[in-house]
Amino acid sequence: MSRIYQLLFCISWLAFCWLAMMGVHELGHVLGGIVTGGSISRVVLRPFSISRTDLSVNPLPALVVWAGPVLGVLLPLLLWLIGRLLRTQVVASLQFFAGFCLIANGAYITGGSLEGIGDCGVMLQTGTPLWVMWGFGILTVPAGFWFWHRLGSLQEWWRHPERVSEQSAWFMLLSVATLVVLLVCFSAR
């Protein structure tokens, strides 16, 4: 049964990280829109779709579009740093999440630059050079993997399923289910 709880925790945690990463990324767009005097018309944060923030008025689209991935990596790093300074028990989880956000945002901007997908299309339209987008990925993706590497061996974690308690597995599943329900109820369609 320990292996089942380990798998349940792992799958739930990855789903939670994905949804939380999208939320932090979109928060960056929202704050960028507000700071630049824009008007947010809707934020789409649905579990089975790509998130996005729509502005009806966007005076500085280049700043707003970059605010998503930049805050999307800086806020998780800040949370990890605070957790580390406070020596909290969840510092390893915060470190994993920071690494996840670094990799996801960096891969999105680098990979998306090739076809002008999503935010990358706006970045290209507003004059961001390809080398800046690739530079973002070159900095963030390896940094994310470094954060993960510093957590220790995945094989070692996998060999000890008893380290994941039944309670933590169910708690993580409940957390991600709650997050999904909240996103479905409150996200724009």
Fold topology:
Elements: H1 2-35, E1 39-44, E2 52-57, H2 61-85, H3 91-113, H4 119-125, H5 130-149, H6 154-159, H7 166-186
Antiparallel strand pairs: 1-2
Secondary-structure content class? mainly alpha
In round numbers, the mean pLDDT is: 93
Q: In which order are the strands of the major sheet placed?
A: 1-2
Approximate shape: globular
Largest sheet: 2 strands, antiparallel
Order of helices and strands: HEEHHHHHH
Stretches where pLDDT is under 50 for at least 5 consecutive residues are: none
Question: How many strands appear in the DSSP assignment?
Answer: 2
Distance between the termini: 39 Å
Helix content: over 70%
The percent range for strand residues is 5-15%
Number of helices: 7
| Rg over CA atoms | 18 Å
Concise summary:
The chain is mainly α and 189 residues long. Helix content is 72%, strand content 6%.
Question: What does this molecule look like?
Answer:
By secondary structure, the chain is mostly helical. The protein is about 70% helix and about 5% strand. The protein has helices at about 1-35, 60-85, 90-115, 120-125, 130-150, 155-160, 165-185, and strands at about 40-45, 50-55. Strands 1-2 form a two-stranded antiparallel ribbon. Helix 1 (about 1-35) crosses helix 2, helix 1 (about 1-35) crosses helix 3 (about 90-115) and helix 3 (about 90-115) packs across helix 4. The mean pLDDT is about 95.
